[in-house]
Model the fold of this input.
Amino acid sequence: MFKALSMITLLLAAATAAAQVEVKGAWARATVAGQTGSGAFMTLTAKEHMRIVGAASPVAGVAEIHEMAMDGNVMRMRAVPTLDLPAGQPIELKPGGYHLMLLDLKRALRPGEKVAVDLRLETKDGKRLTQPIEIDVRAPGAASSGAHKH
Done:
C-alpha cells in the first residue's frame, strides 16, 4: 500500500511538472564508443517562473546545465547551478550557449534512439519538481546549429 501511494505521489509530481514546462525540439549529438560526453539541446517554455536546478539521465553519470561564453578572446564552457525559466519566455538550450551536458556516458548514444532525461525544477515558492523528457539522438552533422567541442 505504501509503495502504491509513493508511486502515485511521484507520478502526480511528474505530471504537475510536465504541465509546467513545454519542451520543443529536444535532441542530443550521437557519440562513438569511448566518447564520454555529449550535448543536448532544446527550447523550454515555463508557464510560471521557475528554474532548472539539475538533471539526471540513466545513460550518464552526470547531467548538468552548461554555459558557453566569451572570456576575453576565448570561448569557455562552465557548469551553472541553476537556469531561470521566466514565465512564458522561450529559453533556448543550443550549441554555443546554454545547453545540457551528458557526461560520464555509460554507453554510446546512437542516431535514431531516444534518451530519457529528468529535468529537476524549482518553482518560485521553492517547490521541487521532476519532469521526465525524451531526447532524440542525431548523427553528428545532422543538426545545422554549430559545433560543440570539448
Q: What stands out?
A: The helical segments are 2-20. The domain at 2-138 is CATH 2.60.40.1890 (Immunoglobulin-like). The longest helix spans residues 2-20.
